[in-house]
Design goal:
It is a single chain. With 774 residues, the chain is of the alpha/beta class. The protein has a 7-stranded mixed β-sheet. Strands 1-3-4-5-6 form a 5-stranded mixed β-barrel. Strands 8-9-12-7-13 form a 5-stranded parallel β-sheet, sandwiched between helices.
Length: 774
């Protein structure tokens, strides 16, 4: 049959049920008028999206009810009220028209003729639904008694399910699901599940309502008791305690002579305190807030020690080396002396672990005569850790910056922000973004902590941050800091640091006198090379502490009065040597070249092996290499192909030879471009059968045209060559200026060859004489 369609919003009509509803949409009114005019039925179905103004074939349910119009009443305006009676279920087969109203071809269908299941099963299901309905009706007092009677009187499963679904305020999606089910028993089962779910929700709503009502009654009772208590206190003469407390805070606020806006805010909080009862939670929050903000050093400063020579002595006494940092601090003092209005600076000490970044920051505070606050940022993931929590939260407190200033008790302190490269971020915010305001000289004069809620001047503070690398620091944050590199210590620097700083410190710590323990320089060098492998001196200090403990035991037991530690004694004191010394090869070899690598624990000698085999031109790279190192090897191969004739190499070697390049110690990841000339030298040695000098090592990036490009870490790399007994080190010509930073002992012991092209490298390492076009 073809019938007009009326889409219902949030409503479902079941067969054999009568229902009133209002119609206001133009298409629905026209469909109703058409049905009345032709004395035909209408097809009622659920509109899926009740927000849509115009129903269409995509947002109406395809199963609905064929209904007869019993009564129609026009209301003021364009609305119509209609009474309909459901006849049977139906399914839309086709949409016939959409204008001026929706018309559809409908296929009616009835319930399945006989319910599947035995009579006891049917009766049990009917009873279960009735029981659930009675429980549901207990929570919904609006249901009429007649409805309950009709439910108890119904015997047909399908009619019972339709009747309950039509007359209870369950969600319209659940009603539609019941309407679409043809089998009466399954329809009852769906209704049973819906009623059970609704009962559970109504029980929770009832519990919540009860708790809210009890809380309201409790609040009213508390208010009544507090009013009584106020009256009793007034009779006893105790009503002035809150006023005295408020007056005390007011005097302290006015004595600070704060900016007007800040002062007004704090005075307002003190005024609030007077109106609050002393035992109320709100009063405790306000008192904690006022105590916290009044403890901040709003006007407290320390006088800078502007004696440059005295500051130099303090820095030299605490640390060996670190010339760049010392010069920067002395420059700050000099400028401060000439321009007292100079604001605080933001410095970032970057270097590997154990080189003394944190202790250098402490030493800077001593040299300046300033107080110091320290906070560790490693693992901080919450933005509130920097800016604090708003005081409306339970347990709120200021952020770490304000806490550090409070700890230092000075508005021009030195704040040390440790491990800034290890900041994290998650759903609670990004702490690095919060630090942008703290470390910006133009903004930190009015830094606002969420807890304090008033601007605090951080512009006079000297911020010192520490990091192991700048790679993980956001660019915007890094741009606000002046980066000072702290490189790894050479072995000779470690010997000096141990002699002047570490050994005296450990002797004091272990109760030993200088005459009771002697550790000469050769022994220190053996400890450094055989028992530690690090860029700093942290492990070296641990090994020295172990020696001091054993010496203290021997002295305390009366075995000896003086302990002298020779290199051969170390195995008995510290155990078997942990690291084998790096040695150069015993003879010159073909296809093996010495490279120099930089690591986080210093420089290392890195051998590169190249093997040439008959094959089809494959290139194999092994040794746990990174992408940059692989690309560097490919660039070296392309250079050799372009210069094959000049180097007396078969021009077709890349077609009939396989090349295998291997970096030993495959368990250690390796990357970077600085092994480029080493790889090229090893391959040319293997292709020309020319041995590489065993006493030569090299570092440098290679270009496709054979240019030798500059690299970093020269100080650590040359120290590795010195330790291994290398005599000649080949470096890029552009790195010649870096030789000034190399330890004098190393510089005198090594012969440096500066190369701007691979021809110079081949001449120094292989003895090959070749020319290249300029």
């Amino acid at each position: 049959m073809t019938l007009p369609l009326i889409a219902l919003r949030g409503m479902t009509v079941f067969p054999r049920m009568m229902l009133y509803f209002d119609i206001g949409r133009e298409k629905s009114v026209k469909a109703l008028e058409q049905a009345m005019q032709n004395r035909e039925n209408v097809f009622l179905t659920l509109q899926k999206d009740i927000r849509a103004d115009e129903p269409n074939e995509h947002n109406v349910s395809h199963i609905g009810t064929v209904a007869q119009i019993r009564q129609m009443l026009r209301l003021p305006g364009d609305s119509v009220r209609v009474l309909v009676e459901g006849q049977t279920r139906g399914k839309i087969v086709n949409f016939v028209s959409v204008e001026p109203f929706l018309a559809v071809e409908v296929e009616p269908f009835a319930d399945t003729k006989r319910p599947r299941g035995s009579a006891p099963q049917i009766e049990a299901l009917i009873r279960e639904v009735r029981n659930l309905f009675e429980s549901y009706a207990a929570f919904v007092p609006r249901l009429s008694p007649e409805l309950v009677v009709n439910v108890l009187a119904a015997r047909e499963p399908g009619y019972l399910a339709d009747y309950i679904a039509q007359n209870t305020p369950i969600p319209f999606e659940s009603k539609q699901s019941i309407l679409e089910e043809r089998a009466p028993l399954r329809r009852l089962e769906r209704l049973s599940a819906v009623l059970a779910s609704e009962i559970e929700i109504l029980e929770l709503e009832n519990d919540i309502h009860t708790k809210v009502h009890e809380q309201i009654n409790k609040n009213q009772r508390d208010y009544y008791l507090r009013e009584q208590l106020k009256t009793i206190q007034a009779e006893l003469g105790d009503e002035h305690e809150a006023d005295e407390l408020g007056d005390d805070y007011t005097r302290r606020i006015l004595a600070l002579k704060l900016p007007r806006d800040t002062e007004e805010k704090f005075l307002k909080e003190a005024s609030r305190l007077r109106r609050l009862h002393e035992g109320s939670p709100e009063s405790a929050v306000v008192r904690t807030y006022l105590d916290t903000v009044l403890e901040l050093p709003w006007r407290k400063t320390t006088r800078d020690r502007l004696d440059i020579e005295a500051a130099r002595r303090v820095l030299d006494r605490d640390h060996y080396g670190m010339q760049k940092i010392k010069e920067r601090v002395l420059e700050f003092l000099a400028v401060k002396r000439l321009a007292p209005e100079l604001k605080g600076q933001i410095l970032c000490f970057v270097g590997p672990p154990g080189v003394g970044k944190t202790s250098a920051g402490i030493s800077v505070a001593k040299a300046l005569g300033r107080k110091m606050g320290r906070l560790s940022l490693g693992g901080v993931r919450d933005e509130a850790d920097i800016r604090g929590h708003r005081k409306t939260y339970i347990g709120a407190m200021p952020g770490r910056i304000i806490n550090a200033v409070k700890q230092a008790q000075s508005r021009n302190a030195v704040l040390l922000l440790d491990e800034i490269d290890k900041l994290g971020s998650d759903f609670r915010g990004d702490p690095a973004s919060a630090l942008l305001e703290v470390l910006d000289p133009e903004l930190n004069a009015t830094f606002r902590d969420h807890y304090v809620e008033a601007p605090f001047d951080l512009s006079d503070i000297l911020f010192i941050t520490t990091a192991n690398t700048t790679d993980t620091i956001p660019r915007a944050l890094l741009d606000r800091m002046e980066v000072l590199e702290m490189t790894s210590y050479t072995d000779e620097e470690k010997v000096t640091i141990a002699t002047e700083h570490l050994i005296p410190k450990q002797l004091r710590r272990h109760g030993l006198k200088k005459a009771q323990l002697s550790i000469p320089a050769p022994t220190l060098r053996e400890i450094i090379s055989g028992y530690t492998r690090e860029s700093g001196v942290r492990n070296l200090e641990r090994e020295l502490a172990a020696i001091c403990r054993k010496a203290a035991r021997r002295v305390a037991q009366g075995e000896t009065r003086r302990v002298r530690v020779a290199p051969q004694d170390l195995e008995g004191l510290l155990g078997v040597r942990k690291y084998k010394p790096e040695r150069k090869r015993g003879e010159d070899e073909v296809g093996v070249a010495n490279g120099l690598a930089w690591t986080k624990v210093g420089g290392e000698l890195l051998e590169v092996e190249a093997g040439i085999l008959d094959g089809t031109g494959k290139v194999e790279l092994t040794g746990n290499l990174g992408e940059i190192m692989k690309e560097s090897a490919k660039a070296a191969l392309s250079y050799i192909r372009s210069r094959a004739k000049i180097l007396a190499i078969d021009p077709k070697f890349y077609k009939n030879k396989d090349i295998h390049i291997h970096f030993p110690e495959g368990a250690i990841p390796k990357d970077g471009p600085s092994a480029g000339i080493t790889v090229a030298t090893a391959m040319i040695s293997a292709l020309t059968n020319t041995p590489v000098r065993r006493d030569a090592a090299m570092t440098g990036e290679i270009s496709l045209r054979g240019r030798v490009l500059p690299v970093g870490g020269l100080k650590e790399k040359t120290m590795a060559a010195y330790r291994a007994g290398i005599g000649t080190v080949i470096i890029p010509a552009e790195n010649e200026s870096d030789l000034q930073e190399i330890d004098a002992t190393v510089r005198e012991a090594l012969t440096f060859v500066t190369a701007d092209h691979m021809d110079t490298v081949l001449s120094a390492a292989l003895g090959l004489t070749v020319g290249h076009e300029k």
